Each structure stands twice: as C-alpha cells, then as structure tokens.
What does this fold into?
Amino acid sequence: MADKTNSMAALYGKLQTVGYSRAYINSLLPDWWDDAIAETQSGYQEASLRLGHLFGVQPGTLRNHDAHPTLCVPSGRRFKHQVGHKAQHLDLACALAMSAARLVFKVLPAKVERVVIPEARLIRECLLQENAYISFSVLLQYVWSLGIPVIFLQHLPRNTKKMAGLAFESEAQPAIVLTSGRSHGFLLFDLAHELAHIALGHVANGRCVVDQDIDAGADDPDERAANQYAIEILTGNPDCKIVPSGRVLRGPELAKAAILYGEQNRIDPLHVALNYGHTQGHWGVAQSAIKAISEGMPTDQTVLRNKLLAELRENDIDDDDLAAISRLIGARVE
It folds into this structure.
C-alpha cells in the first residue's frame, strides 16, 4: 500500500507553492511521465530529484515533506534596474534560466581552463577580418566559440516577470541567457552587453548579474562599463552616438542612411538604426527602419534557437533533456 505522503500530488503542490501552475508543470514533463512513480519511497525520491533539476527547485526541499520548497538561484545575484520592483519577483525566471543552463552544461565538453575574453577592441578586430560588420549571428558564433553557451528563454509560467538578460558562472563555466522577443536588432546589443559582464569580471566567483532591462543609458557603474564594452565591439567607439547630419530622418530615410553608414563604418545597419533611435529618442522611426532593413531575414530568436539546438545535438544530448530545452526556448519539440 502506498504511503499517502509519497505522491505526485504532494510534489505538484510544492511546485505550485513557488509559482508553477499544473498546466505549466505538465508542459515540461517528458511524454513518458507517470504519476505512479511517486507511490514508493524510492520513486518519490527519484521524482523529487528529476522535478527539482527540471524546475530549478532544490530537490531536498521537495523530497522532505516538512521543508518549504526553495528555488535554485545564486546567492550572489545582483539585480539591475529594479526601480519599483522587488528583486525576488524575478527569482522564478532566474531559476528556470539556471535550470536550462544546467541541462546545456551536462552535454558540453568540460572546461579545463577559465574562459578568457579579449578586450572589446580586439574582438572587433578579429571578427572584422572575415565579416563586413558584426551582426547578431557573427557575434553569437564567436561567443559560442569561446565556450559560452547562449540560451533563449521564452516559455515561462503565465504572468511571470522576466529579465532581459542574465550572465553567470557555474564552477567557472560562464553562460548567457536572453529573453527579448523583439525580432531584429535588439538581441545584438543584449548579447554584447551580457558578454561584457563576463569579460569585465562582474560574474566571477559564483556571482550572477540579472538585467531586468538592458539600458544603453544606465548610470550604474557596472552597467555603464558593460554598455561601453558592448558598443565598442559593435562600432569601434565605446561612446558611439549616431546623430543626423541634417534634419531628423523618417523611417524609410533612416533605413537607407543606416545601410550606407553601416557600409562605410562597418557597423550592422540594424544597430545603426537602434543607436540613432536611442540617441535621438525616436524609437518609432528606428523601429520603422529596422522593419525595412530586416525584411526577409530570420528573426534573431530563430538564429539563437537553431544555434543552441545544433550545439546540443552535436554533443548527443539526452532526448528528455532536449525536449525540455526545446520547450523552454519555444522551439518545436521533435
């Protein structure tokens, strides 16, 4: 006869306590999952372990009937741009981001040395040797070549607050998580910014930087340094501010000007448009230009998903882990 305390109902209840709905829990469970697994003591322990790793909850706090479930989030995390928000509101998204990263770490080759990231100027010089400018796909490929996985996190519980970016190290292995759904241009700066946090030592010794927003005009010293590093990679000038030489441009005009300026200065035209929009405060014009420039291009999210899945398949990821990652990043589960 099964112990009534050893049941999936008890585990589901604990997961719901930290913010997971039953529908969301079911969306991440493997197809073969059977609640009967928890009806024995050993099965209950196995279920606690699996669910803890999948949902970013300390397994011991699931297994122990008297313990309150605790999310697995770094104690050294630093939240940026939290005006008007409580930091813990991002903990659920952070726990899922860390869980996704751990699934990725499981199959990547173990790091034997700490990742060393060159100065921004040197990264730019290196990448421009074979590219007209540094696009999102170019920078993404480079970051992966350093041994730093980049993960797109899309599938979150309903109404969960999320960060724009997260950079952290686990046992000297760095990782980056991005969440923006804006289809073109924005993820380039976000990726360069999170890479900067790693390069500048902001995540060393188990620390984690959680950027609720990635703001090119931030006043925080670490954020300002990360922004300058990112801008220098993309433009060659850490303080680059692109302004009109004559009258203020409209969307189609900015698109043409951004392409020409990008060719002349070896800067991604999408970044030119966004830099202009930020500098002038004309986001509507910038968005219109981006739409024109990016016509026919795959979204940044598609590029990001495809790169991650290709890396995981190349390293022979477990089918259950691949299915979970696919759901978390919003990819089709095959």
Observations:
- The mean pLDDT is 91.
- Strands lie at 77-80, 150-152, 165-170, 173-178, 208-211.
- The chain has two domains: 8-72, 77-240+298-313.
- The radius of gyration is 22 Å.
